[in-house]
Design brief:
With 127 residues, the chain is mainly α. Strands 1-4 form a two-stranded antiparallel ribbon. It has a two-stranded antiparallel sheet with strand order 2-3. Helix 1 runs antiparallel to helix 2. The protein is built from two helices and four strands, in the order E-E-E-E-H-H. It is 68% helix and 11% strand. The chain has one domain.
Length: 127
């Protein structure tokens, strides 16, 4: 049931028959089943964090887009790329790779969020 707790500990004994077996006992461990309110709170915190992460990623992607547009204008103006322009392109490509990885992680988060939302609906329906 929600908010139930299980208290347990581990007891370990060695098999030292020469100087008698020795026993050690772990600290008490408490496992608690979260209440529905706890689950909702946890989901709300995760959702807020997710939304904030999305806003930050979109801002950074927009900044990166502006940088690419500036770089593109510079490339159109000159016939050859300078060493600085080449380094800038490399740097921007690395940033794009990083952003793509971040977007993949966000995509995974969305999948997990949908899964937990489905569980919340089922739990609410069963209550």
């Amino acid at each position: 049931m929600p908010q139930d707790e299980i208290h347990f500990h581990f007891e370990l004994t060695d098999n030292d028959n020469i100087s008698d077996p020795k026993k050690t006992i772990s600290k008490k461990i408490i496992a608690r089943v979260p209440s529905l309110a706890d689950l909702y709170t946890s989901t709300e915190i995760s959702e807020s964090s997710f939304i904030e992460d999305m806003k930050n990623e979109l801002e950074e992607i927009n900044d990166l887009k502006e940088d690419w547009e500036k770089l593109e204008l510079e490339m159109v103006k000159s016939s050859e790329l300078s060493w600085e322009q080449k380094q800038s392109i490399k740097s921007k490509l690395e940033q794009v790779k990083t952003k793509l990885k971040n977007l993949e992680e966000i995509s995974k988060s969305i999948d997990v969020y949908h899964y937990y939302t489905l569980i919340r609906v089922v739990v609410t329906w069963m209550s």
